[in-house]
Target: Duplicated orphan permease
Amino acid sequence: MFSNYLKIAFRNLWRNGVFSVINVVGLALGITCALLIGLWVKSELSMDNYHEKGPQLYRVMQRQTFNGETNAGPHTPGMLSYELKKKFPEVVYAAGFTWYNELNFTVGNKFNKQKARWAGADWFKMFSIPLLEGTAETALKTPESIAISRKLADSYFGSPAAAFGKTVEVAGSDRPYKVTAVFEDLPSEASEPYDFLLSWDDFAIRSPWIKEWGNNGPRCFFEVRPDANIASVEKRLKKFLNKYRKEEFPNELFLQRVGESYLYNDWRGGIQNGGRIEYVRLFSIVAVFILLIACINFMNLATARSERRSREVGVRKVMGAVRESLIGQFLAESFLITFLAILFAIGLVEILMPFFNELTEKHLSFSLTDPFTYLILLAVGLLTGLLAGSYPAFYLSGFNPARVLKGRLKFSRGSKLFRQGLVVFQFTLSILLIVGTLIIYRQISFIRTKNVGYDRENLIYVPMEGELTTKYETLITELSRKPGVASVSTIGQAPGEFGSNTISVEWPGKDPSSRPLFENASIGYNGLKTLGIKLLAGREFSPKYATDSSGYLINRAALKLIGYKDPIGQPLKFWGRQGTIVGLVDDFHFHSLHEQIKPLILRLDRGWDKNLDGLLMVRTEAGQTEKAIAGIEEICKRLNPKFPFNYKFADVEYGRMYRSEQVVGTLAEVFAVLGIFISCLGLLGLAAFTAEQRTKEIGIRKVLGASVFSVMTLLSRDFVKLVGIAFVIASPIAWWALQDYLRKFYYHIAISWWIFAAAGLLALIVAVLTVSSQAFRAATANPVKSLKSE
Model:
């Protein structure tokens, strides 16, 4: 019986080639989108979830409130991990962990920048990172310990075994380090990659401030016993820091599972507010939308062609076929088309995978030997086959044979309304995708073009490291003379990466109970000019004034908080150091546009502190960038020969802050185009069917003098109405959804009415063009051919 189903299915597919191609192509495109998005979603959900002890691993979060504003993040005191092991019996292991740095890694005469972090001695005991050489107990035990990846071991020593026990040099320390462990390269599921780890004791030597409980910065991870009561641990942890601080800070500690930290990374007002998980949900919905659009094509075309199949159904029922066998026949056709579409989709995925990986900056793979691949193909195949074929199967198998064989099948109004409803649903989804794409595109354009308060063009960052810090004066002097160099200065961190804040700011008249939070950063002489920041009053730091070592620059947000009418020359105590305000700068964005501009204090950075994050800033003259870079490289290699020359463009670094938004925008564009294209495939088939149904009517109208335009209008207006209804339904849904998206940005565009009008007009134009192709063909046909049988 099943073989007969397949034979009949193949015959019907061959007999109706145009409709079969439309169905296969439409379903293949929908399945391709679903597969690509499914692989991306799988990758996102697996981030940091590969550890064997995953359910027992947590990171400590801190919620702080200053002047009524609450923030939350993973930054904690550097000594917290030690105390947790002492005071909490449930904690088996605990380790501090730092931010990402690129440090010079040297072995003999071979050196290069590598990704570095510092971690506590328990790190390898907690996380599933296989050690090829060394043990978890000794890997990070002493200040001189260093654990390196297989990649570094192979590159610098030839093999992990050859690397073990050897000494290396790392920037920022005069002490050599001994390779006490070699670990397997981290998988792509690791959200915070590194090439080598240094010990927590080494970090304490480099950064003594981590021993002060009032300072926050590093992160703290710990592992609990399998039987631990996490609610009890979190309750006791809440006010834990108050025992170690001289005064009670407005803070509390809480926990987040390590496996959730990547996806749930957005905290607003100290409360979890989503994060990357929202993109996972968004594109999961998009995948379902596009698959639904493709399935609707199949359902619509199958029910529209039901008259042609009605006599077949009637004859088969008269010959004794039961309804169940007819349902099986039509479902077999549906699954056959789905199977062909899956084969086509597999080929498309293989072709598109490199481009998709480049776009998403991932290393996704589609392997037919992977059980997950079979699972997703099976799920998509069953879902698509049943969804696309169930209604046509039950609809066609329900025809009354007596009525069918007496003459032409009369379609009910309900059947027509159902087909129209499917078209409306299709275009509602398509218009939602179009509106979403337009909004995301405009927001990204807004980000790119917004005046952020400093000039990103022709600005270069070079790390201040090695001998550049000790030869600072020579460096600045020689660079200033190089062709193409407009100005030179230094800064602790690039705008967008400022990460230091404090409540340790005092001024006359300050409310003793007030604890406002100030961002702070260091900047060198000539820094405002080099960055292109507008000076509103006073002056910037200058070597002419020795007192500038205790001078401060503040922004307008800080002035508003402090309350001085004329801030220049007014006293300001920062970190217990009394000084004066020498300049007022305009507000500029030193964080992303997701956040409001906060009060900022800039202190003098004279360039000779060994700040691992310190940067040399070089403003180049327009059109002279290449010449300036060549000059910078020559000086840096001469003054700092043991370090590779690296530089970054300010505008590129600015764009990296919004990489997720850019990926989302590009994916939205691609899927919106695919959605509307698949919808139009179905519309093309329906238009062809409608024109075929009304062939004799069109012939009579033409004989009676109807113009080609009037016939085209007749055939097109019903579809235009359907697109109009879809627009009315989609607009409020899109407005609601996109308002929520834009709320993630403190600075964002307004949703204008014309965006919805443009989306509706675009959908209408595409639909009319699609329908008009078939309408024109029908309108220009010879009426004699359609009427000769009468």
Remarks:
- Residues 323-360 form the longest helix (38 residues).
- The two ends are 41 Å apart (CA to CA).
